[in-house]
Structure formats: C-alpha cells, structure tokens
Write a structure and sequence with these properties.
With 293 residues, the chain is mostly helical. It folds into 2 domains: 96 residues, Orthogonal Bundle (DNA polymerase, domain 1), CATH 1.10.150; 174 residues, hpI Integrase, Chain A, CATH 1.10.443.10. It has 13 helices and 3 strands. Strands 1-2-3 form a 3-stranded antiparallel sheet, with no helix packed on it. The longest helix has 22 residues. The termini are far apart.
C-alpha cells in the first residue's frame, strides 16, 4: 500500500529510525493488513475503526502472542494513524482508543561486578588477534555501556584513546561521547597492534579474522562464550553488559540523569528501570546498619 510505503519512508528519512525499527513497524502493519483482508476482504486503510483493531488484538491474544508483542503492534498502529492525521489523510486516530494489554514488568538481567572483574582481570582471553579483539569488545560493552549496533559500527576515528572517550552513533542518528575506563587504553593498544596484521585499511574498528566488519551473531557468540566462564545468569547477551553498566553505576552512587545521558536514552523513564536493580546495595546498607540483621 502506498500509504504504508510513505510512512516507512517517513520513519527512515525524517524520524531517522534504525533499520531494525522501521522493518519491525512494516511487519506489524503488513500483519494488520493481512488480518483485515482475511476477515473482511478488500478494505480501506483510512476507514479502519477501533472495533477492527480490537478484533485484531483479540485474534493475536487467542493465538498466544505475548502481551508485550501485542502492545508493540498497537503502538505501531497508533504511530501510523498519527502520521496519517498529520498528513491530513484522516481526521481521527482509531487506534488511540485501543488499550494495550498489561505486561508484567521484568527487571533487567545483569552480571555481578565481581564476575566481570574476574573475566577482565584473570587472563581468560587468548593473546592472539581474536582474544585481543574480544576483550576490547566486552570492555567497551561493559565499560561504556554501548549498544551492539553502536559497537559494531565504531570506526578508527570513533575512539580518542588519550582522552579515554568513544564517539558513538545511537538510535535515530543521535551522536554522543562516552568515557571508558582508563585500563581499556591498554586493551586498545594491544588490539590495534594485532589489527594491522589483519587489515590496516578498513575504517571499521572491529574486524573479523578475514578483515571484514564484525557482525551481530559474532558479537553475541563472543559475549555468550566469555560470560559463560564467570556467571550462571540465563541471558548472556551484549545488552546484559549494557544492563550491568547502568546497574553498577547506580549501585555505586551515580546520578540517574547522568546515567541517562551515558546510555543515550531519550527519556528518563527508560533509565529508571535500573533503579529497581539497586536492591543489592540497599541490602548491603541494611545488613551493615540494622542491629538485628
């Protein structure tokens, strides 16, 4: 549909959403169109009612789709019809009256400080190119709290080794500068020495052994393999290291707004989920202070 195509271009070029985001939105909209075609035949996307959308929601719930996924799809429709209103294609948003199903809040998974210190301090990485690269990747995922896509797309010019900062391009092409631990400078220098032997001409910082840009599955595999050495947490992903970065900062007294800026969050509410994980620090204070603890 032309209106759907225009909306995706709007997300891509005006809102500057990531490919992952606008592809997910397109999939949600295509699923809604398919549902409407199957249930009522030919229809006009501009004349959809709130009742139509609620029937789609009930159908998804009946098919076992999670409340979180259903909520995201409703948000997609709300955004799409808001766009159509802005373009004067329609005069009301039928999705606005549809409520998302309640979702049980899950606390972010994180790795304990002592486990990550063990991983980075006890010589668990090989001394070859791959080991140096993997140690630097994990050090930046945890030490700077960068996202997987941000890490993957770092270039040789992204890093200011002497000032201990890295320049990352976040969601919607928002750039930010993030500090990293001073010890990481040693990891950088070690990796860069070995990187020249692979491909000294590539602009990307992190390369495969064939001199190509690292890819998502490789980064996931590296993180899972090394976290498995030091922790039994079920989830072992790059984002868990980002969760650990935020949680440990807050546990050690960092200001919530400062953590928000370091993470590149647009809204404080996205950062506040990490305040729930500071219970360990509260428990420590309790055990030290309460006479009966």
């Amino acid at each position: 549909m032309l209106l759907l195509d225009d909306y995706i271009k709007y997300l891509q070029y005006e809102k500057r959403c990531s490919k992952h985001t606008y592809v997910a939105y397109r999939n949600d909209l295509d699923q809604f169109v398919q549902f409407m075609n199957d249930s009522v035949g030919d229809f006009d996307i501009k004349n959809v009612s709130s009742k139509d959308i609620r029937r789609w929601v009930m159908s998804m719930m009946d098919h076992g789709i999670s409340a979180r996924s259903v909520g995201r799809k409703i948000s997609t429709l709300k955004s799409f019809y808001k766009y159509l209103m802005r373009e004067d294609v329609i005069d009301h948003n039928p999705a606005q009256l549809v409520n998302s199903p309640k979702v049980a809040k899950k606390l972010p998974t994180y790795v304990r400080e002592e486990n990550l210190n063990q991983l980075l301090d006890l010589g668990l990485f090989p001394s070859d190119f791959t080991g140096s690269r993997d140690k630097l990747m994990i050090s930046l995922l945890y030490g700077a709290g960068v996202r997987l896509a941000e890490l993957k797309n770092l270039t040789m010019l992204s890093v200011d080794i002497n000032n201990f900062t890295v320049r990352v391009m976040g969601k919607r092409q928002k750039e930010r500068i993030v500090p990293f631990p001073k010890e990481v400078k040693v990891f950088f220098n070690d990796y860069l020495e070995k990187r020249v032997e692979i491909d000294g001409n590539s602009n990307y910082l992190f390369l495969t052994s064939k001199g190509e840009q690292v890819y998502d599955k490789l980064i996931y595999r590296v993180v899972k393999m090394h976290l498995s050495m030091v922790t039994t947490v079920r989830k072992k992903s790059p984002h868990v290291l980002r969760h650990s970065f935020a949680t440990h900062l807050l546990n050690n007294g960092a200001d919530l707004n400062a953590v928000k800026e370091l993470l590149g969050h647009a809204n404080l509410s996205a950062t506040q989920i990490y305040t729930h994980t500071t219970f360990e620090q509260l428990k420590k204070v309790y055990n030290q202070a309460h006479p009966r603890s």
